[in-house]
């Protein structure tokens, strides 16, 4: 096996591990899980995948985490719109954070995914699935978006700082 094949294999393995972690964090360890409000930590795996392998890896992990989680542990009817939104979230994280992580980019990535994907798209999908008024759902979903925005920004900043530190340690010991 040449170096390019080894790197590809290593990247696939890392993305598979992050997908598994995302399913566990998203479906088995929810903090709040009401019918239209869900606060969970699957974003961590998607964000890390996007930072490591870019928009394609982030989108793939986002879509797989949602699809596998919905199939293995359904919380309602499967709706492909949520999978598309999860893929879009990973794509945006990858476009904004891959190889260029800084606090302002983290804030932009998190706020854009939370406002567009979570607040607008997922609220639209919930209103379609449960035949509820879109505007009525926005108020409770806005609270979730505000909380998750803060959580994601803090997590991303801590995780990215830690990976930079670990990378320097690993490089200095080899």
Write a structural description.
82% of the residues lie in helices and 2% in strands. The protein is globular, with a radius of gyration of 17 Å. With 174 residues, it is mainly α. It has a two-stranded antiparallel ribbon with strand order 1-2.
Strand adjacency order, main sheet:
1-2
Q: Give the rounded overall mean pLDDT.
A: 87
Enumerate the spans where pLDDT stays under 50 for 5 or more consecutive residues. Answer: 169-174
Our measurement of the CA-to-CA distance between the termini, rounded to an integer number of angstroms, reads 23 Å
Radius of gyration: 17 Å
Structural class, from helix and strand content? mainly alpha
Order of helices and strands: HEEHHHH
Write the layout of secondary structure elements.
Elements: H1 3-28, E1 32-33, E2 38-39, H2 42-72, H3 80-97, H4 103-130, H5 134-173
Antiparallel strand pairs: 1-2
In short:
The protein is built from five helices and two strands, in the order H-E-E-H-H-H-H. With 174 residues, it is an all-alpha fold.
Top keywords for this entry?
174 residues; mainly alpha; two-stranded antiparallel ribbon; 5 helices; 2 strands; 82% helix; 2% strand; disordered C terminus
């Amino acid at each position: 096996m040449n170096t390019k094949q080894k790197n590809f294999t290593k990247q696939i393995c890392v993305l598979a591990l992050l997908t598994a972690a995302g399913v566990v964090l998203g479906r088995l360890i929810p903090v709040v899980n009401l019918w239209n409000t869900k606060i969970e930590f699957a974003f961590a795996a998607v964000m890390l995948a996007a930072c490591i392998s870019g928009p394609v890896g982030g989108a793939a992990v986002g879509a797989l985490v949602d699809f596998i989680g919905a199939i293995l542990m359904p919380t309602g009817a499967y709706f492909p719109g949520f999978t598309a939104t999860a893929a879009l979230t990973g794509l945006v994280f990858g476009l904004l954070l891959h190889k260029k992580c800084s606090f302002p980019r983290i804030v932009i990535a998190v706020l854009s995914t939370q406002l567009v994907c979570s607040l607008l798209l997922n609220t639209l999908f919930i209103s379609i699935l449960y035949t509820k008024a879109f505007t009525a759902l926005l108020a409770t979903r806005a609270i979730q978006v505000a909380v998750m925005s803060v959580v994601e920004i803090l997590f991303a900043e801590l995780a990215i700082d830690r990976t930079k530190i670990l990378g320097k340690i690993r490089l200095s010991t080899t």
